[in-house]
Amino acid sequence: MLDRLKVRCQLCEKTNINRGTFDEHIKTSCSEYRIDCPGKNIGCQWFGSRNEHDEHTKTCLFEKLRPVVDILYKIIENQSLDIENLKKQIEQQAAELGQQKTEIDQQTAQLEQQKAESIQQNIQLDQQKTKLEQQTTELGQQKAEIELQKTQIEQLKAQLQQQQIQISDIQSENQTQKNETASIRKQITTLDEEMNKLRSAIHQL
């Protein structure tokens, strides 16, 4: 009911305006309502009644420049979009670089660990090499001792062979002596027999 009440605009003095449409009257049709120039967004500072608006718009330098400004705004908008895209690309690249840096740091840490392990392995290899050299020296000494023992064994074998020859010679001499002894005993037996015969002959005389 209140929206149907008739009111009067205090700006343009128009009457019989429905209260419910008064705001629309002010915003769209009130001739005395003060509005900004459409070029305000590009720098125009004009502010006046709607009646003066059309006349001002015809002479407003900012409105005349609007096509160029719109083109510039469009360029700026496109450049802003390009800048945003570039920012996103840069952020993405920064994230990728950060990830790559993390991977590089991890690889560097792994390389450092491998380097430390390699140094430790080299130390162990050097120790093993020293042990092998010591063992090689000991083996050389043992080999020399074995060669010396072999020489001594060969000398002992030669001495043994010489002793065996001497034993064989002694055995041969013993056998010869045995043979000579047996021959002498045989001769003695023969002499004893002859002596006995002589004794018997003497007794018979």
From TrEMBL:
Keywords attached to this Swiss-Prot or TrEMBL record, sorted alphabetically, are: Coiled coil, Metal-binding, Zinc, Zinc-finger
- Residue ranges annotated as coiled coil are 73-180
Domain of life (superkingdom): Eukaryota
GO molecular function annotations of the record: zinc ion binding
Please list the residue ranges annotated as the TRAF-type domain: 5-56
Matching entries from InterPro entries are given as: Znf_RING/FYVE/PHD, Znf_TRAF
Q: Does the keyword Metal-binding apply?
A: yes
Q: What is this protein called?
A: TRAF-type domain-containing protein
What organism is this sequence from? Rotaria socialis
